[in-house]
Amino acid sequence: MRIPRSPDGYVTTPRTRRAAALLAAGVLAVSLTACGGGDDDEDKGGDKGRGGGTPGTVTLPKLDGETLEVAAVWTGAEQKNFKQVLAEFEKRTGAKVTFVPAQDPIINFLGSKIAGGAPPDVALLPQPGAIKQAVDKGWAKPLGAGATKELGKNYSQGWQDIGKVDGKQYGVYYKAANKSLIWYNAQVFENAGASEPKTWDELLTTAQTVYDSGVTPFSVGGADGWTLTDWFENIYLSQAGPEKYDRLARHEIKWTDPSVKEALTTLAEVWGKKDYVAGGPSGALQTEFPASVTQTFTGGDQPKAGMVYEGDFVQVNIGETKAEVGTDAKVFPFPAVGDTAPVVSGGDAAVILEDSKAAQALATFLASPDAAAIQAKLGGFLSPNKAIDPSAYPNDVQKKIAEALIASGDDFRFDMSDQAPQAFGGTPGKGEWKALQDFLKNPKDVAGAQAKLEADAAAAYGN
């Protein structure tokens, strides 16, 4: 994440080492109890929801007869769990909320809805760049006093700033992601005699150890281009450093820069290694993200792969198998490629498109610990809301990931592709997603990948 905000709508900070050290060294046990509140009477439990809510809950208005539509690109368990949050909002306010499944890129989806005269009231946008686009198009409406107040109580300044455009608050980052994690099949590691690596060289050694035991080291969901951008970003941040990461995210340096060549060359040490990726390049390119996870934790001690890289939300997909997080499925931080282990985050922000009392109330609710705690208990969810009691998370693994995110404060970087214009960083079959899919197919063509990335970035950024 970046602070302060630059003219192009991004926020920037030069600090990442403390957060990286927390993750890499495993110093995750921080006390978050009563973290988000102040000392005034309201924070001590003066607020009550509609119908006599429990002490400490956010105040919400009566909205009997009001209707809302909420759009998000969420499916499966993630959508099902979020609907439980919306059901609680309905219970407290009397409003009726309908979830509208959206498609990527969500800006295009919203554009068609708006053109048809039927926009959703609230949308969950997965990219800061998408928030800025929604503001520039005149779609997004600023948050009111209630939501802004909840954000001020419960969020670090950096998480507030990433939801701002031109100094105005438009987004509530309801959902976050720690995208610097590698999950592994514990039985595979035990059988192979493999250990958790802390550096990139150690990761390659671990991969060879797993391979020698008869199991393919990595599962890659290459059919979903965004997973490939996440691989690149972790390597680039750790290897090139935070300042260059920020500059590349703003396209202040070109994708033909030597630092990009170095990162792609490093990435090819996994993607280009014969039999290191389940199904080979062609198989990976036909594997969607959910399957990349489930095939790592099914098949007993002979799964299709021993490891899968992705964020904390992998737990939702692990839950679809018989594997138990923390026992059968374990996790380690993305290893340090350079001096410091990377800390890359992502998230989804609630943005109001149709301003109303009900829409503002929902934004306020989503900025409160009440809403996030509901979904936290269901698993596969991480919140930047520092007022959540960590005991809300369902297992020690998720609890430690959440504690590390809160402890990092503003000392991490937001997903680079999510900051880019959607034409480059968030559209299936185009831009960075497609260029890295092509690179997965042919990891020897570093120069060709750089040239394609630069051409697409220049077109999308307009420079």
UniProtKB/TrEMBL annotation:
Keyword Methyltransferase: no
Name of one Pfam family that matches: SBP_bac_8
InterPro entries attached to this UniProt entry: Bact_solute-bd_prot1, SBP
Signal in keyword set: yes
Domain of life: Bacteria
Keywords from the named record: Signal, Transport
Chain intervals for the UniProt region annotation (Disordered): 36-60
Transmembrane spans: none
Signal peptide residue numbers: 1-36
Family that this chain belongs to: Belongs to the bacterial solute-binding protein 1 family.
Protein name: Sugar ABC transporter substrate-binding protein
